[in-house]
């Protein structure tokens, strides 16, 4: 009985969290601005402020959860698929992008509302994606380490230390491209994903210059 009661409480909390997220997004879509206060928001939703604060510290945290939620759902689903471990790192990143943008397609109106400014200015990233950036870079570093261990990604002195930053900017470029994409079913975004990922891996994989350097180093050390 105790385990059943605990499960029900977890389910109730999850439902309330989802209810808050949905109500907040609807507020922005219909009125174009944040609620006047947490109190006013909770009163309209029929919950107490304390219930709100059990899940979120403020509206910024609610907005952030939209992006984090899609990211975590995508990576969890992909990581649990039987073929995931068989993919090369390049394929894993491609698959993640396809999955993420397919998922966000169903929330385009809300996403566009929060992506008002160009993401390519890099002067100030909008607050909603700060947590997404942290989680994405952590996840991406895992892929990079895997790629380097398998010889798929070359280790290049200090450049290797900023691979995660380079791929974060790639992610932001793709998000900005999707925001502006007017093609049918966002086919141009799929094309941009493929071309940008292939280019980035062509640049960070071991290539002819790396092979020539390794060979020259071998000859020098064994002459």
What are the key terms here?
223 residues; mainly alpha; Tetracycline Repressor, domain 2; 10 helices
Describe this structure in words.
With 223 residues, the chain is mainly α. It folds into two domains: 1-56, Orthogonal Bundle (Arc Repressor Mutant, subunit A), CATH 1.10.10; 58-215, Tetracycline Repressor, domain 2, CATH 1.10.357. The protein has ten helices and no strands. The longest helix is centred in the first third of the chain and has 30 residues, at 2-31. It is elongated, with a radius of gyration of 22 Å.
CATH topology of the largest domain: Tetracycline Repressor, domain 2
Q: Sketch the major β-sheet.
A: none
Specify the structural class.
mainly alpha
Please give the CATH architecture of the largest domain. Orthogonal Bundle
**Could you tell me the number of beta strands?**
0
Taking all Cα atoms into account, the compactness measure Rg is: 22 Å
Describe how the helices and strands are arranged.
Layout: H1 2-31, H2 38-45, H3 49-53, H4 59-79, H5 89-104, H6 108-114, H7 130-149, H8 163-180, H9 187-204, H10 208-221
Helix pairs in contact: 1-4, 4-5, 4-7, 5-9, 7-8, 8-9
């Amino acid at each position: 009985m105790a385990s059943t009661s605990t499960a029900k409480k977890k389910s109730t909390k999850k439902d309330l969290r989802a209810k808050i997220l949905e109500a907040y997004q609807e507020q922005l879509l219909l009125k174009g601005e944040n609620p006047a206060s947490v109190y006013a928001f909770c009163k309209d939703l029929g919950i107490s402020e304390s219930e709100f604060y059990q899940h979120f510290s403020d509206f910024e945290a609610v907005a952030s959860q939209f992006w984090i939620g899609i990211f975590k759902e995508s990576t969890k689903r992909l990581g649990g698929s039987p073929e995931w471990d068989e993919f090369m790192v390049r394929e894993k990143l491609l698959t993640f992008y396809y999955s993420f943008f397919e998922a966000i397609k169903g929330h385009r109106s809300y996403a566009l509302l929060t992506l008002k400014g160009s993401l390519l200015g890099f002067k100030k990233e909008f607050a909603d994606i700060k947590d997404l950036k942290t989680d994405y870079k952590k996840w991406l570093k895992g892929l990079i380490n895997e790629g380097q261990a398998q010889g798929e990604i070359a280790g290049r002195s200090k450049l290797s230390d900023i691979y995660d930053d380079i791929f974060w900017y790639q992610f932001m470029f793709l998000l900005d491209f999707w925001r502006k994409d007017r093609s049918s079913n966002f086919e141009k975004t799929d094309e941009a994903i493929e071309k940008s990922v292939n280019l980035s891996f062509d640049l960070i994989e071991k290539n002819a210059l790396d092979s020539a350097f390794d060979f020259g180093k071998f000859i020098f050390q064994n002459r």
